[in-house]
Amino acid sequence: MTILRTREPQVLPPAAASLEPFRLMRDFLRWDPLRDYDLGAPASAFMPSFDVKEGPDAYQFKADLPGILEADLEISLESNRLTVAGKRESEAVKEGERWHLAERSNGSFSRTFTLPEDVDSEKVVAELRNGVLTLMVPKRPEVRPKKISVSLG
C-alpha cells in the first residue's frame, strides 16, 4: 500500500511576513549578480544612502559616510539642485599581507537632489560628525505656512 503525503503549506516566518515592500525593491535594485565573480573589475563603487525629511522650518539630509574625511567631501547648491560628492580611498596592499576578504566598497560618489523652490540657499548648514553627514537646508520665512487664528465674534 502506498501512502501519499500532501505537502504542508509553507508559512513565512514573522520577520519575513512583515517586510516593507519598498525595502525589498531598494534591495533588489542594489543587487549585483556579478558581485561575487572577480572579472578584473574594481571593487563595487561606494554609494551612500541618504535619509531626507522635511520639518516645518527646514529639510534635513543625513548620510552615513564612514571613513570619509571632510577634505574628501564636496557639497554644492546651485539653483535648487543639491549635490553631495566625495570619495573613500581603498586601503593599500602592503607587502607580506594576504587579503582573505574585501567587502567594503570604496571610490567616488555623487548624489544630486532637486529641492523645492522654497529653500534659503544662503543658510545651508553641513556637519560631519562621527561619520554621519547632516545637512540642514532651511526654508525661506516668507513661504513657511502661517497659522491664522480665528476669533469668536
Automatic annotation (TrEMBL):
Pfam families: HSP20 (PF00011). PROSITE patterns: SHSP (PS01031). Gene3D superfamilies: 2.60.40.790. Residues 41-153 form the SHSP domain. SUPFAM superfamilies: HSP20-like chaperones. InterPro entries: A-crystallin/Hsp20_dom, HSP20-like_chaperone, Small_HSP. Coiled coil: none annotated. Belongs to the small heat shock protein (HSP20) family. This is SHSP domain-containing protein. The lineage of its organism: Bacteria, Pseudomonadati, Acidobacteriota, Holophagae, Holophagales.
